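For consistency, the fold was encoded as tokens, as this record shows:
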Amino acid sequence: MAMTLSPDRAVPLAIFAVCAAALAGAYTLEYGFGVLPCILCLYQRVPYAVAGGLAALGLLPGLSPATRRVIVVLCGLTFLANMGLAVYHVGVEQKLWAGTAQCTAPAGGAPQSLAELQAALENPPQLARCDEVGWSLFGISLPGYNIAFSLILGAASLAAAARSDVWRRR
């Protein structure tokens, strides 16, 4: 017996899959390739977790198509908010405005003694600076790609929510 997925469940499933893939990609870059995130990079992961969690709720049995539609709208708005955060991050990278206090690595310069050097080696910084591009492809940083990705996801989610044929009760 073949299982079919109704359109009102397919949209949250697609959102969940995209969010899981985005988070997997971020963690792969960090832990697999050693690309340290900055605090703004970490903040930009949160909307993917939120939208993924909302989308997972949208897969629960017994929800009406109207409820799933609201969940998809919330996911779309979450993606657009993430786009705003990514725009802010790119502005910090390009020195258009200052980042938060957490965006800069602790000042102090080079170690002044062997004890300071040993302490620095034993406790390396776990976050990169927000105002430095940690990784780029074709001259575009990860937050730059996140702007486009979040805009596309937000627009696609809201467009799917606007389609009445997807949300008819079956």
The helical segments are 7-33, 39-57, 65-93, 114-122, 142-162. The chain has a mean pLDDT of 86. Residues 7-97+128-166 form a domain with the Bromodomain-like fold (CATH 1.20.1550.10). The chain has one domain: 7-97+128-166.
